[in-house]
Design brief:
Distance between the termini: 33 Å
Order of helices and strands: HHHH
Radius of gyration: 19 Å
Oligomer: single chain
Largest sheet: none
Number of strands: 0
């Protein structure tokens, strides 16, 4: 882990450079691509800021739906395990287990929360906040 500048400081500098120097002074498709790059930097910053909390929340939601299991300590393994658990939940939904009843409501609430968290990263304007 590096001390300074932090990843957020580096990404903020790139974002400012793109927004303040490149986008206003670059017409046409290059200007468009610069805006896309600046937006990608903003998305990365939001993801890095929210990732630990979102992974923890998604893991807890899956524990509530599928039964608690030990959480992997490494981030990469945690992401892989969440993907596997989401596949297991999807299979239960396909089998009709979430069509009605308390489990269905728990699944809907988990999905609302998880999708909201993901939209907060990808494009918070879609949430109307």
């Amino acid at each position: 882990m590096q001390d300074r500048p932090t990843y957020d400081e580096l990404l903020a500098a790139i974002e400012r450079f793109l927004d303040e120097e490149i986008v206003p002074n670059t017409p046409g498709s290059r200007g468009f691509h610069a805006r896309v790059a600046a937006n990608a930097v903003r998305t990365i910053r939001r993801e890095l800021e929210a990732e630990d909390d979102q992974l923890t929340a998604e893991w807890a939601g899956l524990d509530a739906l599928l039964g608690a299991v030990d959480r992997p300590p490494a981030r990469a393994q945690l992401r892989a395990e969440i993907a596997e658990r989401n596949a297991a939940l999807s299979e239960r939904v396909r089998r009709g287990e979430a069509d009605a009843g308390p489990f269905a409501e728990q699944v809907r609430q988990h999905l609302r929360t998880t999708v909201r968290d993901k939209l907060h990263v990808s494009n918070p304007r879609w949430l109307g906040e």
